[in-house]
What does this fold into?
Amino acid sequence: MDISIENQQSLELYSELLKKDKTTILNEALKEYFENKEEELLANDPTGEGAMTNLSFDEFWDDVEL
It folds into this structure.
């Protein structure tokens, strides 16, 4: 796996600022990335859960009060 120099530098910086190890930061970032992509895929899948609306997850829940 190759990580760009810019991302390596950011990872080092945020690791120091947040007092977190680099593995934790990478795992958190990947988890968020995959959750976002899953929402996008479901929203755009005409046969899946998102088939009932053309709104994104955030657009659908905007202004909803529970």
In short: Helices lie at 5-18, 22-44, 57-61. The CA atoms of residues 46 and 52 lie 8 Å apart. The chain has a mean pLDDT of 86.
